[in-house]
Write a structure and sequence with these properties.
Blueprint lengths: L7 H17 L3 H11 L3 H19 L1 H11 L2 H34 L8
């Protein structure tokens, strides 16, 4: 095998970094669709990234690209990435919902006092 598995902790870090970048660009839906469609071809995707390595390395860095290639070359890695993207999106929606609720409570509550 050309690609060696990363230690679990390192794999989680790589997945976290990729997932956060995808969500930060607002590309979670197309990324999940792409990953789901290509999950059965994970080994081929990993080796395709190896082929493109010389062209992509200057943009992403050799170390980061090698780690991403290793994670994306297995179905388990792709599935973990999809799951983490979905978790991050759910966390952000929850935070946004809480902020909206707090803003509506602060601005929408009028105290009624009676003059005595």
């Amino acid at each position: 095998m050309l690609l060696e598995r990363l230690p679990k902790e390192k794999e989680r870090e790589v997945i976290e970094r990729i997932a956060r970048r995808i969500v930060s660009y607002g590309l979670e839906v197309p990324a999940i669709l792409f990953l789901e469609l290509h999950k059965p071809l994970a080994n081929l995707v990993g080796h395709s990234l190896l082929f493109a390595f010389p062209f992509l390395a200057p943009f992403f860095g050799v170390s980061a690209l090698k780690e991403a290639t290793t994670v994306l070359s297995t179905e388990e890695g792709i599935e973990a990435l999809i799951k983490r993207i979905e978790e991050i999106v759910a966390e952000e929606k929850s935070k946004q919902h809480d902020m909206e609720r707090n803003a509506s409570n602060e601005g929408g509550v009028f105290e009624h006092t009676t003059g005595e």
